[in-house]
Design goal:
two-stranded parallel sheet; 58% helix; 2 domains; 99 residues; elongated
């Protein structure tokens, strides 16, 4: 309500039952606001595990990136946001460096 429903188009949360229930309440009360589950998190988690899970892959990753992949405690949604921000930062850096 602080932001105002006219200033919100979309809310993005994870697929937890509580988040789904809250988003349904919001969509019913404010028909112009849409809910989207955070689906890219699964892909990012897979990529991180793929890189970190093998010494050669992590060695190659570290050779071409000054930023490191973070291991964040799984406090659900917050850790997903931190991981996605880090991937975005890594992508920006590697595209600037020409890799």
């Amino acid at each position: 309500m602080e932001v105002g429903p006219n200033n919100v188009v979309q809310i993005i949360t994870d697929n937890a039952a509580v988040c789904k229930a809250a988003s349904m309440l919001i969509e019913v009360e404010f028909t112009s606001i849409y809910w989207t589950p955070l689906q890219i998190a699964d892909d990012a988690t897979f990529i991180k595990k793929f890189i970190v899970g093998h010494s050669m892959r992590i060695s190659m990753f570290n050779r071409f990136n000054s930023l490191k992949l973070l291991s964040v405690a799984s406090t659900r949604f917050a850790s997903t946001i931190v991981m996605l921000k880090r991937f975005k930062s890594l992508k920006k850096r590697t595209s600037k460096d020409g890799y």
